[in-house]
Design goal:
cell division, chromosome partition, Arc Repressor Mutant, subunit A, cytoplasm, single chain, 5 strands, WH_DNA-bd_sf, disordered C terminus, SMC-Scp complex subunit ScpB, alpha+beta, 3-stranded antiparallel beta sheet
Length: 190
C-alpha cells in the first residue's frame, strides 16, 4: 500500500491533527518522505469531499468547504440528540479525572473515544487544550459553560466529589498492582 494511502488511513482513524514528525516516526521514514506523501494525498483528495489540511508541522483531514452547509445541518441534528451512555461516561471521566489525553480516556473506558470526544467538543461540554507534557497530544477538560450549567465553580463542588475520588484512587491503585503483577510474570510458565 502506498505511503500516502497509509497516512490517509491513520489521519482518518485519529480524527485529529497529527505532527509530521510523529507520522515519520510511526512509518519509519523521513519527514521529507511524509511531506511528499502528504502532497500526493492532498492532490488526490482535492476534487472530493475530504480535504487535507497541511501546516508546516501538522496534517489533518477535514471536509471540503463546499460541504459546509451539509455538515452544519448534520451538526445541528447531532446537537438535538442525547449524548448517550458512552457520552455520559466519557464526560464523567473528564469531569472527575480531567484534564486527560484521549489515550488516557481510552484506557479508562477500554474503547476508542475519538468520536464521543468530538461529539462532546461540538456541544461545548469539553475543550481541547495543549498537553503541557507532550506537544504532540492534547488534554480534554471541562468547559466553564458546563460548570455554569451544573451550578458549580470548580469540580470539587460536584456532588460526592471526595467519595468518588477516593473510590477512583483505590480502584486505580488496585489496577496498577494487578498490571505490575502481570508484567512481572510475563515469562513465567504454568
Amino acid at each position: 500500500m502506498p505511503l500516502d494511502a497509509q497516512i490517509e488511513a491513520v489521519l482518518f482513524y485519529r480524527a485529529e491533527p497529527m505532527k509530521i514528525a510523529v507520522l515519520a516516526k510511526f512509518f519509519e521514514v523521513s519527514e521529507d518522505e511524509v511531506r511528499t506523501a502528504l502532497e500526493a494525498l492532498g492532490e488526490r483528495l482535492k476534487s472530493g469531499a475530504i480535504r487535507l489540511i497541511l501546516t508546516d508541522s501538522e496534517a489533518v483531514l477535514a471536509t471540503s468547504p463546499q460541504l459546509s452547509e451539509t455538515i452544519e445541518k448534520l451538526r445541528k441534528d447531532d446537537l438535538k440528540k442525547d449524548i448517550g451512555k458512552a457520552g455520559a461516561e466519557t464526560l464523567a471521566i473528564v469531569l472527575y479525572r480531567g484534564p486527560l489525553s484521549r489515550v488516557e480516556i481510552d484506557r479508562i473506558r477500554g474503547v476508542n473515544s475519538t468520536f464521543i470526544l468530538r461529539n462532546l467538543l461540538i456541544r461545548g461540554l469539553v475543550e481541547r487544550r495543549a498537553n503541557p507534557n507532550d506537544s504532540r497530544s492534547f488534554h480534554y477538560a471541562i468547559t466553564p459553560e458546563l460548570f455554569a450549567h451544573l451550578g458549580v465553580e470548580r469540580r470539587e463542588q460536584l456532588p460526592e466529589f471526595e467519595d468518588i475520588m477516593n473510590t477512583l484512587d483505590t480502584f486505580e491503585s488496585e489496577q496498577q498492582s494487578v498490571e505490575e503483577g502481570e508484567s512481572d510474570n510475563v515469562f513465567a510458565t504454568t
